[in-house]
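Hi V.,

You were right to ask for the full record rather than a summary. Here it is.
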Amino acid sequence: LQNIHGLGNLQFVGKGIRISHCDSLIDLTGLENIDSANLFVRIGDNAMLQSFKGLENLTHINGNLEIEYNNSLTSLLHLSNLSSINGRFYISYNDRLKSLEGLQNIDSESITEIWIMGNDSLSLCEINSVCGYIADSNNTVAGIWENFLGCDSRIEVENACTVGYELKPD
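Predicted structure:
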């Protein structure tokens, strides 16, 4: 599969989005009309995927966001309109990903768990959604490890978050 241009009429995905093992796919152009998905958005094992271009209008996931094993992925910026997920935030084994920028607008209260692991180049994790989640003492499930310096442990991310992050008032 080299592109998904033929899916341009989709607006809402009732059962979730799963795109995996598409070794020639470089972006998600063709999904521009999707604004929400139920259950999950799982993008994984796509060797050439570089960005989430095509998902710029995705604003809500009623379930998990899982991004894993996309060895060429360098940017999540096209997900910057995503505002809630109501599920697990799972970013793992994306070797060239350096930053979580693009996921900063997710309401931290809509995140049930955070797992950020095995992203060899990932050093910027202190975005609003992550900082807000780990700042809330009720949120105990946050596995952060085996990323690059600055995002290699929960403690590193907590320390980075304390610089310039302000908690929402109750």
